[in-house]
């Protein structure tokens, strides 16, 4: 279960209906409904974005038999048995301002194969996730196959990246995201930038969009299985079978921590290093380490102030949110539906099934890509077709020189 990382996906439908003929008219006009009625599709940008998601949304969502009948079965199946596309990656280790490090994994050879104005897609995996995970690899190969330049943003300690300071990443910390987006934009100044995040990565991405607001250098983004409200997500995490996920993620966090335990040897104050090192739950880890590292008085204070539900109203870039109604880790009741409906830049799709990072359905089920991947690409390609090529973010030369001098490349 240590492979499991916070994140998720979705499913969609479409149907046909016939308008009654107008009085005195002998022609019956056929119109195509926007989506299948069993889907929840809302948002201030619904009418703007929905026509671009034409293919999959007009077909019934058919979860794969025997696997998707239960949300836990689907979640576990996708985590352990879904295929993992083999891709040769080129790693850049980026040293950020506070001395910490993150790892950026690019598709090897794309810097020569693709033109400099090819759109760039930044992928943010879920908690403890990285470029090794199946849902990340499938999205990477799908986008790359359509001519997109793709980079996986492995947070501190994730994806076998190094931890170089006594601090991990968190749901509250946006500093690394700012620096990664800035670095990628400086490297490809002619390209439009986009991002896709899963679960905790989605929460961080949406918080970043809200914080940057009108100044955001991204041309669009997709949030998948976002927990949105971490207080509610934490409540559900301790119920029934969800305790299995909680323990699995805690073990994954402890594994990363123990690799770098010497960095935390002399931490004093409110830190409880033994609790973090031997955490039985994610909450234990956050109590012993995370909330203290980022200056919160309690775990609940950390969760409350790190939830992306409060950021939706400030998002000023096109954002597609995809959730599963039966997601055991990102509860449907935590979705900020009203804020999404009021924001003219946002659209939400909620599927009846999908589990967490599951969506075992569609043409490639059960072992292939999640059903969501084609929908995500439809949305991103729609944005890219209409994106302006002007007004892009550009870094000053000093920042570019500094980041270039702090990068190291290896093949993975």
TrEMBL record:
List the keywords (alphabetical): Hydrolase, Serine esterase
Q: Where is the AB hydrolase-1 domain?
A: 119-357
Q: Which SUPFAM superfamilies match?
A: alpha/beta-Hydrolases
State the active site: 199 (charge relay system), 327 (charge relay system), 356 (charge relay system)
Supply the name of the protein: AB hydrolase-1 domain-containing protein
MF terms (GO), sorted A to Z? monoacylglycerol lipase activity; short-chain carboxylesterase activity
Q: Which family does it belong to?
A: Belongs to the AB hydrolase superfamily. AB hydrolase 4 family.
Pfam families with a match to the protein in the record: Abhydrolase_1
Q: Where is the signal peptide?
A: none
The record, for InterPro entries, names:
AB_hydrolase_1, AB_hydrolase_4_CS, AB_hydrolase_4_sf, AB_hydrolase_fold, ABHD4
């Amino acid at each position: 279960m240590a492979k499991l990382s916070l994140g998720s996906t979705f499913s969609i439908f479409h149907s046909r209906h016939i308008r009654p003929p107008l009085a005195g008219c002998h022609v019956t006009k056929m119109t195509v409904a926007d989506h299948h009625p069993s889907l929840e599709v809302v948002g201030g940008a619904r009418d703007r974005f929905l026509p671009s998601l034409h293919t999959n949304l007009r077909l019934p969502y058919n979860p794969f038999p025997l696997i998707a009948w239960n949300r836990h079965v689907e979640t576990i199946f996708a985590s352990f048995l879904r295929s993992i596309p083999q891709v040769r990656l080129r790693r850049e280790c980026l040293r950020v301002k506070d001395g910490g490090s993150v790892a950026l994994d690019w598709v090897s050879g794309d810097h020569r194969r693709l033109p400099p104005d090819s759109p760039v897609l930044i992928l943010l995996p879920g908690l403890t996730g990285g470029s090794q995970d199946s849902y990340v690899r499938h999205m990477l190969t799908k986008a790359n196959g359509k001519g997109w330049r793709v980079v996986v943003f492995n947070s501190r300690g994730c994806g076998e990246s190094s931890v170089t300071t006594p601090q991990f990443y968190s749901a509250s910390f946006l500093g690394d995201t700012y620096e990664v987006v800035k670095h990628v934009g400086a490297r490809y100044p002619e390209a439009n930038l986009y991002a896709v995040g899963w679960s905790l990565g989605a929460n961080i991405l949406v918080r970043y969009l809200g914080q940057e607001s009108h100044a955001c250098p991204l041309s669009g983004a997709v949030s998948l299985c976002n927990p949105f409200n971490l207080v509610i997500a934490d409540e559900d995490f301790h119920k029934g079978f969800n305790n299995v996920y909680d323990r699995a993620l805690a073990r994954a966090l402890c594994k990363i921590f123990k690799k770098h335990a010497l960095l935390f040897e002399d931490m004093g104050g409110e830190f409880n290093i033994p609790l973090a090192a031997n955490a039985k739950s994610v909450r234990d880890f956050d109590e012993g380490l995370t909330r203290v590292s980022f200056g919160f008085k309690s775990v609940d204070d950390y969760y409350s102030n790190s939830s992306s539900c409060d950021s939706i109203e400030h998002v000023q870039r096109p954002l597609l949110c995809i959730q599963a109604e039966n997601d055991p880790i990102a509860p449907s009741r935590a979705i900020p539906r009203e804020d999404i409906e009021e924001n003219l830049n946002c659209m939400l799709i909620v599927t009846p099934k999908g589990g967490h990072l599951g969506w075992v359905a569609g043409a490639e089920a059960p072992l292939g890509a999640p059903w969501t991947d084609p929908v995500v690409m439809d949305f991103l390609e729609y944005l890219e077709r209409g994106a302006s090529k002007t007004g892009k973010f550009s870094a000053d030369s000093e920042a570019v020189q500094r980041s270039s001098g702090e990068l190291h490349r290896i093949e993975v």
